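Memo to structure team: turn this sequence into structure tokens by end of day. - J.P.
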Amino acid sequence: MVPARLKLIELRRECDEELMERCAAGSHEAFQCLVERYRGRLINVVGRFINDRDRAEDIVQEVFLRVYRNRQRYERKGKFSTWIFTIAVNLAKNEIRRKVRRRGEISLEGLEEAAGPTTATADKSPGAEENLGREQLREMVAEAIERLPVRYREAVVLRDIEGLAYEEIASVLRIPGGTVRSRINRGRLMIKDFLTPFLSRESL
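Reply from structure team:
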């Protein structure tokens, strides 16, 4: 019998689809590898969608529960990453809708229309932009992403943070490829508009 540690090392070399097929056949080690591979990425994505890291961890746990429950129905027709990100995005959207209903808002669409970037007060003193460290810049970018309406935020996060291909994003969000590109471009412009008062145009 192959030692469990060695088996995990070997399994980690396999692609997602092979691991999922092994999981469907009853391999707990294969499922563990998938959890290790995707947990951090999914928490990052869901956390940016809902702006709640702790709740994101709960949602990602539910993602893996759904993957495991449906393991025997898995068919290797497309990329595993597309499938699991679709589950995560749908659960994140459900969480946003739940919050909207709880707060008495009319609809998610109405919230999106009202949730665009707000204008921040710029520090126009000489050399102000030089005082922004890398950590501050990362925080500002994260804040800009959080201010995006959901439809733009999800596209930007999946493309610019997770590096999914446009075709994958279209499958995950179930929208045409042209709409994906349009939302990403619009989201990037909103982020740039938010950062412009703080940074010179050259640095952007």
